[in-house]
Amino acid sequence: MAILDAPPAPPIRPRSSAPPKVRATSAPSRRSARKATSGCTVPVAQRAALRLVQELGGLGPKDRMTPAAAAALLKRFEEPLSRSDIKAHRPGQIMSWNVRGLNAPARRSAVREVAQTNNISILNLQETKLETWTLEMARDVGGSLLQGCVVLPAMGTRGGAAIFWDKQIVEITDQIVASFSITAKVKIISTGCSFWMTTVYGPTDDQQKANFLSELAAVAPPATEPWMLNGDFNMIYQARDKNNCNINRRMMGRFRRAIDLAGVKEVKCKNRRFTWSSEREDPTLCSIDKVFCNLACEDMHPSFVLMAASTSFSDHCPLVLANGVRPVTKARFRFENFWTVFPHFQETVQHAWERPIRHDCPFVRMKKKMERVAVDLKQLKGLARSRLPGFLGSAREMPTQSSSMPASSRVVEKNYIHSIKKGDAIVMEPREKAQLAFDHFARGLSESLQQNCTLNWDLLQLPAVDLQGIDLPFCEPEIWAAIKAFPTEKAPVPDGYTGKFFRSCWHIIKQDIMAVFQKFYNLAGDNFADLNTAFIALLPKKDGATEMGHFRLISLHC
Question: Which of the four CATH numbers 3.40.50.720, 3.40.250.10, 3.60.10.10, 1.25.40.390 does domain 90-323 have?
Answer without folding.
Answer: 3.60.10.10
